[in-house]
Automatic annotation (TrEMBL):
Superkingdom field: Bacteria
Protein name, as recorded: Acylaldehyde oxidase
Lineage: Bacteria, Bacillati, Actinomycetota, Actinomycetes, Kitasatosporales
GO molecular function, one term: iron ion binding
InterPro entries referenced in this protein's UniProt entry, alphabetically: Ald_Oxase/Xan_DH_a/b, Ald_Oxase/Xan_DH_a/b_sf, Ald_Oxase/xanthine_DH-like, AldOxase/xan_DH_MoCoBD1, AldOxase/xan_DH_MoCoBD2, AldOxase/xan_DH_Mopterin-bd_sf
Residues of the Aldehyde oxidase/xanthine dehydrogenase a/b hammerhead domain: 23-136
Matches recorded under Pfam families: Ald_Xan_dh_C, MoCoBD_1, MoCoBD_2
Length: 732
């Protein structure tokens, strides 16, 4: 078959929805104009653990405009049917809003006030008197009792360590982080009889639809979720949180559409977080740095009612070659909200530890950190014996070292100064396991030569509208201007979560499939049509370019979609497309990789760390949309700078209260913290990965960044900081 010309894919296009966004015409969840909507404000628990003994709503109800106060004393019992399987909550029993008197974490929703105005609802919420029987909560990862571990082992790690010439025994601690997207989570809920419509901030339209159908015991088709724009997510929208249920419940009880927007403070209480960890890593190697054994022991927090796990074990099993590995991953149940995946989930945590430790090992035995990594590069995935699909880390190192000027790094720590500043270079490698799950899409080519593709995907910022349209345009042989991609509605064909680096792979492959089918329908129509200039031409010899079908190599012989459809009295052609997910059984071990380089300056007196420049080199398969990929890569580096130097959710263990639940005290990088950032993508596609040859870029871009910075801080100062974030205090 003649390959379709690729004009849109690979072109550095700007976002097709950019103008809508910068002119305020892109509507985010809370901005939809739903007739007659009233406002709801959640009352948060003021204790960290215990029971509600009474709720006095009289003052709130007396406030003008307040319509209703709903709490465990008056809320109807909600079905919370068993999971249907497609909303994938963690093991456990999810938080059921207003269904009992238990307080499981500080800030849990204990009541909701519904009022005709936002101000009345807010004031009403402040008037609700909640009395408690308080107990002391357990919120300290380092003092609570862990569950039984999940284990992995190959070889004999203890014997391997004992016989190793070089041994390291290192313990690292990573702070809890919150996602903090710019747009707060928000929901508008409306009932029309037994049908529920929600306008919601979500990274998973189908997951939210499924969860609401489960909670209210409705057929899936009776719940519609609309989410055309998402103002950042980083993972916080990968689950339907209790506030969405609260909005739907409040709307049902008041028989009015209800709008509920979380405050910035409530974004720390009700939408998950990257869990804190304590991670002990023991490494054994020979004197040349060839690894023989590793023992990984990680403790990560979860809630008392759900067991949240993430991919923190995989990197330790497959990243470096060694015969002996033992791992134990323990969950520590605490009186906190349930954590959730946050950018680079699991891998961004594990990589900080493994890549810091590799830097420590390189220093101990006196070899270059890149050379150490090369010496331990595995030829296959040693956890399962599978060949790599593509693994081009060596090339990442070569390109990165050259482009970053790695040869200028002094191997001796604390030996390079720039006035009062100690400067240093560091690097780290990264790996991420992109998900591959079934997805569907639909495309319709109209007689006017324009096409619309649809899938129930999200776009939290990476540019799904644009990148999917690029795939569709090339597969249909149309220009970008004549193709529209629609997303964010559960009426469209279902897709997996918009997260885990899955959207380009899974949705893109389904869009490609649907568009290929429509193109083939058009070609077959032309070939069989005696009045077509393409009549009788072998179908495989025909391509479509700019809406015109023609013989490959002979552009003069052909006709447009419009002429073809008009002559055949066809209003449109359409097709459903699908992507089946990862092949079973797996034939390849499939990961995205990077090498990240950082230069830092540390004030010799004050301990202030400033990142001066960074470079990320990515083995992420084919890049559909280079300009949007850059936006991902730079954003991932910014996220990594936050993880390395600033972000830290602080809990007061006396009562379980988060003390910095605001953007003044929870520090994130601002423009002044962001230096010269650059991204390079290794060219080429991974055709073992999926029909598009992409591996996804959204998650891998944050993996390894914190370690690269920590390693640069060591190179600059000679101080090894094993706790994130790296603060000035730690460096004094
Ligand atoms: Mo990403 S943590 O899956 O939004």
């Amino acid at each position: 078959m003649s390959p379709q010309p690729q004009a849109a894919v690979g072109a550095p296009l700007s976002r097709v929805d950019g103008r809508l966004k910068v002119t305020g015409k892109a509507l985010y969840a809370a901005e939809h104009d739903v007739d007659g909507a009233v406002h709801a404000v959640i009352v948060d628990a003021g204790i960290g653990r215990g029971r509600i003994t009474s709720i006095d709503a009289r003052a709130a109800l007396a406030h003008p405009g307040v319509l209703r106060v709903i709490h465990n004393g008056n809320a109807p019992k909600l079905p919370y049917r068993d999971n249907s399987g497609s909303n994938n909550p963690p093991e456990g029993r999810r938080l059921r809003v207003f269904q009992d008197d238990r307080v499981r974490f500080h800030g849990q929703p204990v009541a909701v006030v519904v009022a005709t105005t936002l101000e009345a609802a807010q004031h009403g919420a402040s008037l609700v008197e909640v009395s408690y029987d308080a107990e002391r909560p357990s919120t300290d990862l380092h003092e609570a009792e862990p569950d039984e571990p999940t284990r992995y082992a190959r070889g004999d790690a203890d014997a391997g360590l004992r016989s190793a010439a070089v041994r390291l025994d290192l313990t690292y601690r990573m702070a809890r982080n919150h996602h903090n997207p710019m747009e707060p989570h928000a929901t508008i809920a409306r009932w029309d009889g037994d049908r529920l419509t929600v306008w919601d901030k979500t990274q998973w339209v189908v997951g939210t639809q499924t969860e609401l159908s489960t909670v209210f015991d409705l057929p899936l088709e009776s719940v519609r979720v609309i989410s055309p724009f998402v103002g950042g997510g980083f993972g916080s929208g990968l689950r339907c949180w209790p506030h969405v249920v609260v909005a739907a419940l409040a709307a049902r009880e008041t028989k009015r559409p209800v709008k509920l927007v979380l405050s910035r403070k409530q974004m720390y209480l009700g939408t998950g977080f990257r869990p804190s960890y304590e991670y002990r890593l023991r490494l054994g190697s020979d004197r040349r740095g060839r690894l023989s054994a590793a023992v990984h022991e990680m403790d990560g927090e979860t809630s008392s009612y759900e067991k949240f796990t993430e991919g923190i074990m995989a990197a330790g099993q497959m990243f470096y070659s060694m015969p002996h590995v033992r791992q134990a991953y323990r969950l520590v149940p605490l009186d906190v909200n349930t954590p959730l995946w946050m950018r680079g989930p699991g891998f961004a945590t594990a990589s900080f530890v493994i890549e810091s430790a590799m830097d420590e090992l390189a220093h101990r035995i006196g070899i270059d950190p890149i050379e150490l990594r090369r010496r331990n590069e595995p030829n296959e995935d040693e956890s399962n014996g599978l060949p790599w699909s593509t693994r081009r880390l060596r090339e990442c190192y070569t390109v990165g070292a050259r482009e970053f000027g790695w040869h200028r790094r002094s191997p001796k720590p604390r030996s390079t100064r720039d006035g009062d500043w100690l400067t240093g270079l560091g690097m780290a490698a990264g790996v991420y396991d992109p998900g591959r799950f079934p997805a569907q899409a639909r495309v319709r080519l109209d007689a006017d030569g324009t096409a619309v593709a649809e899938a129930a995907a999200s776009d939290m910022g990476p540019g799904t509208y644009t990148a999917q349209a690029q795939v569709a345009a090339d597969a249909l042989g149309l220009t970008m201007r004549t193709v529209t991609f629609r997303l964010g509605d559960s009426l469209y064909p279902p897709t997996p979560p918009h997260g885990g680096s899955m959207t380009m792979t899974c949705v893109g492959s389904a869009v490609l499939d649907a568009c290929n089918k429509v193109r083939r329908q058009a070609i077959e129509l032309a070939v069989e049509d005696e009045d077509s200039p393409l009549h009788g031409v072998p179908a495989d010899d025909i391509v479509v370019r700019s809406g015109r079908l023609h013989v490959q190599g002979n552009p003069a012989r052909g006709e447009t979609y419009q002429r073809l459809l008009a002559r055949n009295n066809r209003t449109h052609l359409e097709a459903d497309g699908s992507y089946a997910g990862a092949p079973e059984p797996a034939r390849h071990s499939y990961y995205a990789y990077n090498a990240t380089f950082a230069e830092v300056a540390v004030d010799a007196t004050l301990g202030l760390v400033r990142v001066r420049r960074m470079l990320g080199v990515y083995d992420a398969g084919r890049i559909i949309s280079p300009k949007l990929a850059d936006s991902q890569a730079l954003g991932g580096m910014v996220g990594g700078i936050g993880q390395a130097l600033l972000e830290h959710t602080v809990t007061d263990h006396r009562d379980g209260r988060i003390v910095n639940a605001n953007l003044a005290d929870y520090l994130v990088p601002v423009n002044a913290d962001i230096p010269d950032l650059k991204a390079i993508y290794l060219e080429g596609e991974d055709m073992d990965a999926d029909p598009l040859g992409v591996k996804g870029i959204g998650e891998i871009v944050q993996v390894g960044v914190a370690a690269a910075i920590a390693n640069a801080v060591f190179n600059a100062t000679g101080r090894r900081i094993r706790e994130l974030p790296i603060t000035a205090e730690a460096l004094l």
